[in-house]
Amino acid sequence: MSSRTLNHALLNQALGYVREGNMRRARSLGFNDDELRELRRMSATELDALASEGAVICRLAVDHSMLMARIYRLTQDQDREMQIDRCLELGASVQMMADFFGLTGNDCSTRRALLGLESRQGRLAQPPEEAEHAAWHRWQAICPHPSDPQRASLDLQGMMTLAEETRLPLAVIWHLVKNWAAPDQPRSEIPQDEQEEDAAGGPTWVAM
């Protein structure tokens, strides 16, 4: 990076912080208050002339907190995308994807197409009693709070693990977990995922 480019970048950044009233950020670039006052009163032409000086009047500094915050955010975004794809591969329903990720039916259809997944239609089948019993016992070991309805139904990673181990669709696991966490409530059937059903209806999902 040339000295002129660097000078322009840091001067403009400092003035931007000053205009926002964020003096702490402006000072963090290495300027003191007297320098910032002088820069603020200068015209655009004068600032351009100052930045074009051959001498390096500004030196690059790393905003460590901002850098790590952006790295963390990008990592979170990447992890979220991978988790969404894995949920769809494990058989999550549109309602489940809406609750956990805010996705719509169209979002799910598009992502399934990109992943090469078969579109799911109709109502999920209840698993056999033996399969549910085995899944329930495994859930007691996977979930830290299996009897807490709120915590259990939000343990997405745990439900993904259970779906992988039992080979039951993730939407079925989600429904079972909610029933297990509230044993005093009447058991409900697995709801039909109406947002994905076509007008003519579709085949029933069969748990593997």
Give an account of the 3D structure.
This protein is mainly alpha-helical and 208 residues long. It has two domains: 3-51; 78-208, no CATH class. The chain has helices at 3-20, 23-28, 33-41, 44-51, 64-89, 94-101, 105-115, 129-142, 149-154, 156-166, 170-180. Helix 1 runs antiparallel to helix 4, helix 8 (129-142) crosses helix 10 and helix 10 (156-166) crosses helix 11. 20% of the residues are buried. This is DUF2857 domain-containing protein. Residues 184-208 are annotated as: Disordered.
Poorly predicted tracts of residues: 194-208
Distance between the termini: 59 Å
Structural class: mainly alpha
Tell me the domain tally: 2
SS summary, helix count = 11
Average predicted local confidence, pLDDT: 83
In total, how many beta strands?
0
Beta-sheet strand percentage?
under 5%
* Inertia-based shape: elongated
- What's the SSE pattern? HHHHHHHHHHH
What about the largest sheet? none
- Work out the helicity level: 55-70%
Cα-atom radius of gyration = 28 Å
Region (Disordered): 184-208
Organism: Billgrantia ethanolica
InterPro entries: DUF2857, FlhD_sf
Protein name: DUF2857 domain-containing protein
